[in-house]
Amino acid sequence: MSLAVNHISVDCVVLGFDGEQLRVLLLKRVGEPGGQEFGDMKLPGDLIYTDENLDDAAKRVLRELTGMSNINLLQYKAYGSKDRITTKDMKWLEQTTRVRVERIVTIAYLSLLRISRQLAAPPVGNEVRWVGLDELGTLAFDHNILIHDAIEAVRRHADIDPSYLFNLLPHKFTLLQLRTLYERIYGKAQDVRNFHKKISQLDYVVALDEHEQGVAHRAARLYRFDRKLFRRARR
Amino acid sequence: MSLAVNHISVDCVVLGFDGEQLRVLLLKRVGEPGGQEFGDMKLPGDLIYTDENLDDAAKRVLRELTGMSNINLLQYKAYGSKDRITTKDMKWLEQTTRVRVERIVTIAYLSLLRISRQLAAPPVGNEVRWVGLDELGTLAFDHNILIHDAIEAVRRHADIDPSYLFNLLPHKFTLLQLRTLYERIYGKAQDVRNFHKKISQLDYVVALDEHEQGVAHRAARLYRFDRKLFRRARR
To answer: How many CB pairs (< 8 A) connect A and B?
Structure first.
């Protein structure tokens, strides 16, 4: 019965929506201990510095990765299972961080990002990619679990604050995009007619006098989310 | 820019409701480095063991404290600010745990408990008390902040799952108790008539053919929460 000396990391699940599916921002893992290739992907994350708070560490990771500092961030869960890191992953960590690692407790953060936002060039040697949730494969560490839990956290948060999901949409969007987003988040098909009826009752989803441009099919009407009207409706 | 070696602890905010106010389960802090008295109170918590997961550590703390193993537990936030622990508190920790402490990241858990439940005798030297939220004073570490955030977490959770608050009530309760509980959780007065109307529309709050016993005022009708009906209503 001894006490654990641990390292603390933050990991960031940055979600985007391309109109069809949800995507998550992943880094290609680099480093080859013993000539072994780590070709897999991981969430952006890092050990925290001595002089750094948890939230600040998460902000730093995202800033270094995207060049942005004004990203919404939600701390949603801490992971501390002693077997969450395999021996192989442990070796990689010790090589890249040059510290002796016993266990890493990670604090997971969630961020919703418009996928159209221009990302800064990533640090040299890093490759950043928006990967579809259906195409994740097996990620490094327990990052598949972190992403799974992040979607649940999105649902919980959106139940309390329905404006939350609009962070994932372009400023002008079609009802098809909005409905598809709901279907991806909640994992089930939405009846078109009921959905349109539901949305038409929300006065903060405002129909514009504009339509899609340059599409092969019949151009759909565009809508926008009005935060002022939303705040008024919630009062 | 160095990496922090940290300790991980869990702290448990156990909330109860006595019909009048919310109470939290606190421990009197013991230990006197340098003859100094630590007469203040703290949340039940502990450093995690090497072979222990976060959730298991929280369960252990509560089991040791209350003798119970079937308590609802909700992980709600991680605290890692580097200045969350004063020098004085740090000394106490190093004395009682006999480890060199650099920073402690704590994972906070929330538990709702019927205040009538019989607690086991606490470990020798410990004094456990249900302290009213209005009578906390200044607690050890940043535990006032943890408790404040716990109430917010209760609200968030109850917004998603209205059955959550019934964990705080006796099996049979009056509408006055239920209304007072809402007022304490949400921090504002509830209009009596609107509240009764709202509750009468919830078929899972079932009126009994029983009244309070042995009260000086007019005995009020008793109600109970029906989980089966609740589940059906939510489907």
So the answer is: 98
Q: Among B4, B51, B77, select the one facing A50 at the smallest CB separation.
A: B4
Q: How far apart are CA A193 and CA A197, in angstroms?
A: 6
Asked if A141 contacts A42 with a C-beta cutoff of 8 angstroms, the reply is: yes
Can you tell me whether residue B192 is helix, strand or coil? helix
Q: In chain A, whose CA is at the least distance from the CA of B158?
A: A160
Check: complex ipTM more than 0.85: no
**pLDDT digits 0-9 by tens, A79-93:** 988 778 777 777 777
Largest CA distance in chain B: 68
Beta strand pairing call for A205-211 and A221-225: antiparallel
How many degrees, rounded to 5, is the angle at CA A202 between CA A196 and CA A203? 120
Of A54, A97, A156, the CB nearest to B80: A54
What are residue A100's phi and psi, to 5 degrees?
Answer: -75, 125
Looking at beta carbons, which residues of chain A come within 8 Å of B102? 50
Please indicate whether, in this complex, the C-beta atoms of A75 and B78 are within 8 angstroms of each other.
yes
Residue B229, SS3? helix
Rounded to whole angstroms, the Cα distance separating B58 from B78 reads 13
Q: Which domains does chain B have, with CATH numbers?
A: 7-160 (3.90.79.10), 171-234 (1.10.10.10)
- For the entire predicted model, the pTM comes to 0.85
Verify whether the Cβ–Cβ distance A54 to B105 is below 8 Å: yes
Chain B: give the shortest CA distance to residue A209, in Å. Answer: 36
